[in-house]
Amino acid sequence: MDGANRPIIIVGGGLGGLTTALALGRAGRRVRILEQAPEFGAIGYGIQLGPNVVPMFDQLGITAAVLDKGDVPDACVLVDAHSGEEITRIPLGVSFRARFRHPYIIIHRVDLHQVLMDACRARPEIAFEPALAAAGFEDRGDHVIVQTADGSTIVGAALIGADGLHSTVRAKLRQEGEPHQFGYVAQRTLVPMAKVPDPVPRRNVYMWSGPGFHVVHYPLRHSTEFNIVAVYRTSTFAARLTQHDHRAEVERIFAGTQEAIQVMLAMMDLERRWPLADRDPIRHWHKGRVTLVGDAAHPTLQSMAQGACMAIEDGVCLAALIDLADGDFERAFTQYEFERYVRTARLQLESRYMWDIYHAEDVARDVMRQTFADRTEDDLFRCLAWLYDGFRVPARLRSPAPMERH
Ligand SMILES: Cc1cc2nc3c(=O)[nH]c(=O)nc-3n(C[C@H](O)[C@H](O)[C@H](O)COP(=O)(O)OP(=O)(O)OC[C@H]3O[C@@H](n4cnc5c(N)ncnc54)[C@H](O)[C@@H]3O)c2cc1C
């Protein structure tokens, strides 16, 4: 059986899966997306998008729709959670736009997901399969067979695992353990802006940093909603606690912090929390006709707010190479890894480094403050340039094929 007339199967309808589907659909490739949840959707909190994703949105034809739903803050401010002292401020206004050519965007995840869904639904090449979980696959050389949790099978030309941190596709590709947990959890809340009281800064992106914890907040939906994320280290990170126990823990960990933080914590919905995890970077995440995008390939800590941005870059890059290779998936997937792995690995490693900086204690904290105090706007922009200057989507196949396996 030849894979040429089969659709490409994507497992996972998150931001990575939808981007890949849309980019492939726009290139005229047939796609089938399997999503384990009963509906294609996103969790209802905010997301920050660096200027590096805007050229990807341009290629997908969705920049205007994203900007319509999103907002562009003037600054990202890092504040000491105990003293209230401003540690550093990254301007995101005129000088940022002049340097990086595109805006920094804050947007509700549901809105971004919806923009992608609307664009995907408008493509006849894309078929959606909600409530269908992939359980395994076989690569038959010239096609793939995906086994689903309900016992059925789906035949495709190739398989793309966009199934996130706990990827089933990755687990079958590579023999390795669970993602690396650091003992940190995130708790997220969205409140109406009208309910946010005065000591809390309502504009811009704020990050309050302290030893072993931080709080991030920013406005959404044209300042009608307010997104709060509290992240902290706890020995109970893997346990299921009652809401009452969560609150007791949060009160203990954030004791002595600024009034703005206390006010936000009082507003937080502490019912659910997410243990945070990443993996060590790898060079290779494909085999034959099967590859990965986004968190399935290179899960990262949130310190630089770029995990979804990398998934979006992956999707556009992968679709471009599949199109260029025109049916030679092995070639497309080999070059895709080569084009993406250093950039995504750098994000994974720098995110770990920044994680330690944000949560530093004692002397390390003093060093962190001094280091930031010495940085000019130019210095800050230079540190971010490798990321925010963006990713060049390949326009041709490399010849000979890019890398030896090692
Ligand atoms: C607290 C927090 C804040 C963050 N903030 C930012 C930010 O500001 N900016 C940013 O860029 N990134 C941010 N991230 C990271 C970002 O959320 C992820 O990197 C991004 O969602 C990864 O997208 P993905 O499509 O690869 O995976 P996911 O979003 O995890 O999507 C995977 C999809 O696959 C489905 N799935 C899983 N298994 C199967 C299966 N077997 N069969 C079928 N479907 C399956 C899931 O249901 C899900 O829909 C943040 C993360 C956290 C935890």
Describe the 3D structure.
- The chain is of the alpha/beta class and 406 residues long.
- The chain contains twelve helices and 17 strands.
- The strands form four sheets. A seven-stranded mixed sheet has the order 5-4-13-14-15-12-16.
- The longest helix is centred in the C-terminal third of the chain and has 30 residues, at 329-358.
- It binds flavin-adenine dinucleotide.
- Residues 11-17, 34-37, 47-48, 133-134, 162-164, 168, 186, 229, 274, 294-296, 302, 305-309, 311 line the site of flavin-adenine dinucleotide (FAD).
Percent range for helical residues?
A: 25-40%
Series of H and E elements = EHEEHHEEHEHEEEEEHEEEEHHEEHHHH
Contiguous low-pLDDT stretches (5 residues minimum) are none
Please list the strands of the largest sheet in the order they lie side by side: 5-4-13-14-15-12-16
How far apart, in Å, are the first and last alpha carbons?
31 Å
Q: What form results from the Cα inertia axes?
A: globular
